[in-house]
Amino acid sequence: MKNIFLLFGLLVLACPTSSAQFREDPILNLQNEDKKFLNWGYYLGLNQYDFQFEYKNDIGRDILVNKSIGFNVGLIGEMRINEFLDARFEPGLLYTSRTLGFPGFANETDAIREVRSTYIRFPLLIKASTRRIGNWKPFITGGVYTSMNLGSKEDSLDDNSSGEFRMKKNVYGYELGFGIDFYTEYFKFSPSIRGVFALSDELVPDDDPNSPWTGNIEAMRTRGIFINFTFE
């Protein structure tokens, strides 16, 4: 998680226009950009997804999650509410991979499950901004989302006894974040960090209620962090 925050900071500082935005009296770019009722754009970004497990019994052996960095891409539709508030719809595609390590197994074939997920996400967000300061403007954002996991294998007849880790296809939750709008000469560039928190249980348990993989899991929910770079 620390690595992705560090990467965010380095990318923002490396932006060729970032230092110019903070001058005392900059030439104002795109002065009418935020007065439009409707605005459109797209975003590219990175993600790091984790799982939060709830257990039926505390047996002192937690499931380990090895996280990797994935990518996300999507479109933006923004509706202006007033000077400080905007409603945003940000449908997108996200790919991530997590490796689960289950305790109590003698061989790696049974202990390790690689979970690759491709989500189609539909977030509905509110963006609250400060007053514009020269060519930059901080903001916070938050809202709810629903997503479809194309790699869920929810309908598969196989389970972990056959090497198949299953997840539910439909997920919903909420996300919170913050960022900065930079007004360049030709477009608005907005790096942001988002925290993503699933509310729905994503686990499809094994057919055996005493399964050594899922028998002690009460619920499994996604937790994740995004770094998004928006161009409008």
Automatic annotation (TrEMBL):
Record carries keyword Signal: yes
Limits of the Outer membrane protein beta-barrel domain: 31-202
A Pfam family of this chain: OMP_b-brl_2
Leader sequence residues: 1-20
Keywords annotated in UniProt: Signal
InterPro entries given in the database record: Beta-barrel_OMP_2
Protein's UniProt name: PorT family protein
